[in-house]
Amino acid sequence: MKKRDLIRQLREIAKAADTELGFIREGANHEIWTIGGQRLVIPRHREINERTAQGIIKKAKEVTTDDP
């Protein structure tokens, strides 16, 4: 999956949960983003392994559905 497509999906998840996807910082190998107060670690590659991307999306959905 392309990184930009992953970020786009995360923004849609955040918007649906009425929260915001925020960028915190970038390191040598990963970027740190937040959604609903939870940190998401995203690899700094143009192409992200499909399983890794699905795991990040799953975590984002869990975070947004757990909020009261």
Descriptive notes:
By secondary structure, the chain is of the alpha+beta class. The chain is built from 2 helices and 3 strands; from the N terminus they run αβββα. Strands 1-2-3 form a 3-stranded antiparallel sheet.
Strand-pairing-aware structural class: alpha+beta
Tally of individual domains: 1
Shape: globular
The arrangement of helices and strands along the chain is HEEEH
CATH top level class name: Alpha Beta
Uncertain stretches: none
Calculate Rg over CA atoms.
11 Å
End-to-end separation: 31 Å
Quickly count the helices: 2
Largest sheet: 3 strands, antiparallel
The strands making up the biggest β-sheet line up spatially as 1-2-3
Output the CATH topology.
Metal Transport, Frataxin, Chain A
CATH architecture descriptor: 2-Layer Sandwich
Helix content: 40-55%
Work out the strand percent.
25-35%
Average pLDDT works out at 92
Strand runs, count: 3
Question: Layout of SSEs?
Answer:
Layout (H helix, E strand, L loop, with lengths): L2 H14 L4 E6 L3 E6 L2 E6 L6 H17 L2
Antiparallel strand pairs: 1-2, 2-3
Helix pairs in contact: 1-2
Quick overview of this protein structure:
This protein is of the alpha+beta class and 68 residues long.
